[in-house]
Amino acid sequence: MQEKDIVFLDGEFLHKNEAKVSDFDSVFTFADLVEVAPVMFGVLVYKNEFFARLKRSLEAEFVDFVFNEDELEENLQKLIEKNSLKEGFLYFKVSKGVSSKDFDLVEWFEPIIMAYVYEYKIENNPLVKSGVTIILLPEIQWKKIYKKSGSFAARCYAQKMITKAKAYDGFFVENDYIAYSLNSSVFIIKDKNLIAKPLPNDKILSFASELGLKVDERAFSMQDVYNADEVFIYAASLPTLPVVKVDERLINSGEVGEFSKKLMQRYIQNMQDEARKSKYFAL
Q1: CB 3.0–4.6 Å: which of 6, 110, 128, 189 could bond 82 by disulfide?
Q2: Is the predicted pLDDT of residue 147 greater than 60, yes or no?
């Protein structure tokens, strides 16, 4: 996976080697926000969900970045076109701006925005057919409170453990329950029940209902994962990625499950339908 050459930085389209931010930008000193959206047929899809998540994150992070959805969509679409991207995903980052390392969030300078895109197979991704391996990790995000660092330090440490284990992702475990996944949301299916921690993802819940699955929003344990008929993870860049192995235990005898396949097919169909309805669709 490789990012494309052109980025969008504070209203300008620049080559990635020319995009510069201050050493004192809050993205380096604090954990600022990132949102992701898929691209299909050269079009930014699920834009409404993307904007809703972005607004929610901005409010939660006390970031005073007010934007016009149509104007921002137009600029992001230009970014996609300048990179000749047909399929993949877009990263959108917002920092609180340049400031001294002051934990008082009242007075910030102008927020800085940056966006860039990756080329990535969504429709014919081989991992969807093979499934992926997951490892279990101790919850470390807040355990090492003595260690001062900004942003994704704990996640980078976790990613090293995942790479060393030759796995795709990791589930953080706390008190024998799945706290969260490093890069995605976790779902399990048992006896035609889709079980997940409560999350604002109406599409996946709607698609599950269409397939005859009953939705059960609750926390679940490691044992629930081991005993599940199917396990899959969801991310904006690649929805419904089947999990066939967790640590050394096979899920569904190591085979991709029926509902995981159908959910991914439904997502692909829905993405393509959304792309075709966009005014930027050009195929």
Answers
A1: 6
A2: no
